[in-house]
Amino acid sequence: MNVQGINHITIRVSNIKSSETFYLNVLGAKIVHKGNTDIYLDVGGVWLCLIEMKDAKPMDKNQIGVDHVAFTVSEEHFPKAVQLLRERKIKITRGPIKRGGGNTVSFNDPDGNEIEFFTGSLQERMKNWQ
Length: 130
Hints:
The chain is α/β, with parallel strands linked by helices. The protein folds into two domains: 1-54, 2,3-Dihydroxybiphenyl 1,2-Dioxygenase, domain 1; 67-130, 2,3-Dihydroxybiphenyl 1,2-Dioxygenase, domain 1. The protein contains three helices and eight strands; from the N terminus they run βαββββαβββα. The strands form two sheets. A four-stranded mixed beta sheet has the order 1-4-3-2, covered by helices on one side. A four-stranded mixed beta sheet has the order 5-8-7-6, sandwiched between helices. It is globular.
């Protein structure tokens, strides 16, 4: 078997319309497909599927599961990304700070799913974690 990369990430959301607005306006996502309870987005070449789960409850931070999704942002555009979060009054949960070989800032989508913008590479991060 030869896994070539991540194909897509599916995120459960409580309201497809508010999540669509968030991912389009904050992450610059492009709509690939839009259904009644799902939407497929392209975010910098990453395929995200948002699926509406009306009766779902937010995950407890101590549960097993995905902790966060991190997107690469260039050093050059990182200050603009942080400024955008602040202008849109999106609560920053960590940062902006220099950590793991790059600049990082973390924030939540409307349902509390944690998202990170990170400027470093895997190689830079490993140098810092050794």
